Every structure is written in structure tokens, then in C-alpha cells.
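Weekly puzzle thread! Below is a chain. First person to post its structure in C-alpha cell form gets bragging rights.
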Amino acid sequence: MGKRLIAGLIVVGLAVGVWVLWPREGSDTTTTTLPVAAATTTSTTNATTTSSSTPDVTVTTTTTKPESHVVETVEEAEEILRALLWSRYDAIFREDEGSLQGLVASDSALKSGVQSFGQLVFLAEPTLEGVVLREIEILRSDETCLALWADLDVTAFVDSDANSSAVVILRSQDNQWKWMALWRFKNDLWETDCDASLESVS
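Winning reply:
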């Protein structure tokens, strides 16, 4: 009997609780949202910084006039003198005034060469190998004048007395070395030919 009474009370209590909690028509329904901790994801990225450095490049263009060449060695002086001597004798041999004009640095040098036409006794046609130079000494060398002391031997194609030592003066004109004068002794006034003003040969 007592147990039935307790069971009845429990049923009645549950019914009342359901009635109280059941939402009534027209009543406000309030939803309470509890704050939820937001899930935080931490992403660590290794950032790589590439520093691109481009150096400033300055391009300088310099325009210069070609400088006259200064002969510094005996070997170069010998090569220049041998070629010029052969060309000069060849022009005289052929009596070619035009070619001779392009080889000399003054009117007096041209006149001297022309006067040799028919006067020099040639034993054979001049050759480069036939020009023999000995004891070459550079007396002066700069941008405008090359003075050489040398023993000149062209007996291979000119009469046998064409062998002597002398000071040869070459002048730079039109970007090439040209024949200026021949002096017999070292102590002659050959430097006057080095310092003389040059004019076009006519």
C-alpha cells in the first residue's frame, strides 16, 4: 500500500514537470547560447626573404684619338728601317717618283731621291733580304722622330761602295714612318731635322 502511494506521487510529479517545461502557445522562447571557445589553429610558416641586389653598373664609353707609336726596341727600329730602305731603293731603281713621294717626309728628301734616278749603279733589283743593318743604336725616339745610328749595307744590289755608317732620320707623317735625311756623323746637327715642321710633300 505504501509502495503504491509513493509510485503514484512520482508519476504525478513527472507529469507536473513535463507540463511546466512544455512550451505554451504564444509564449517567448529564449534560447541561451553558451559561449563556445573557438578552436584556434596556429599555423607557423617559415618565411624566406630573398634579397635581390642588383649592383648599379655604369658604362663609360671613352673615345680617344689613336696615339702615335713610339719605337722602344732596336729590333723594331731595325724592322722599320730595313723596310723603308728597301722601298726607297726600289722606287729609285724603277724611277718611280710617285712611290718615292709617299716614302719621304720633305720636299728636299723627294728631290734628293729623284736626283738619284739613273745615277745609282744597281747590280740587281733591290730586295728586302739584300738590306743588311749592323750596329743599330737609337739616338732619339718619340712620337714624331726616330733617329738611328746604323751601319748600312746594300751592296747586294748597289755598287760596292754603298756601305757606310750614318745617322738616319725618320719622321712620323700620315701615321707612318717616312725618310727625312741622312747624316754622316753622330755629332752632326741631325736634331734640326727632328724638330723641323713637316709639310705635305709635293
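Puzzle host: Confirmed. Bonus trivia for everyone else. The domain at 74-188 is CATH 3.10.450 (Nuclear Transport Factor 2; Chain: A,).
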